[in-house]
Amino acid sequence: MRIRAGDETDLDTILALGDEAVAWMAARGNIHQWGTMPWTQSAGRAQSVRNMIAAADLWIAELDGEPVGAMITGDHPVPHVQPVDEPEVYVWFLITSRRHAGKKIGSQLLDKAVSLARERGISLVRVDCYAGGTGDLVRYYERNGFVKAETFTAINDWPGQVLVQRI
């Protein structure tokens, strides 16, 4: 797998990954995390992703030249999460292709975030995620070396969990 820097030309790739994820989650009854509307049909979702790409660093995971995952990292948290009093790498966004599940794409992208922190002399990596449903997503991050920190509630009573990893 190759992880490369991305840019605004990768927007359609991210939206397609979002469509795939929404369909997969909805088929399993998870309609609260990202809803049911395909991302390619949502001008608001496209603008939100476009804004993140413009404000932070986009990383694209590829297998044999095919984009199979994306991660956006910043040097501060997203607006619904409290900032901390130290430098950090914050994972704003992480998505992987469900067609390639089991290939550790998300884990390798998270390893990239840790690597970025090390390169920059930063000892904290944080991420937040949907904390509802079965809790599988929180456990996923825990399996990848993160530990639970604070919880939060975002718009429309969306339950969130912040997780941290010390380097």
Automatic annotation (TrEMBL):
Every N-acetyltransferase domain range: 1-167
Alphabetical list of InterPro entries matching this protein: Acyl_CoA_acyltransferase, Bact_Acetyltransf, GNAT_dom
Pfam family, one: Acetyltransf_1
Keyword field: Acyltransferase, Transferase
Protein name: L-amino acid N-acyltransferase YncA
Species of provenance: Kibdelosporangium persicum
Record lineage: Bacteria, Bacillati, Actinomycetota, Actinomycetes, Pseudonocardiales
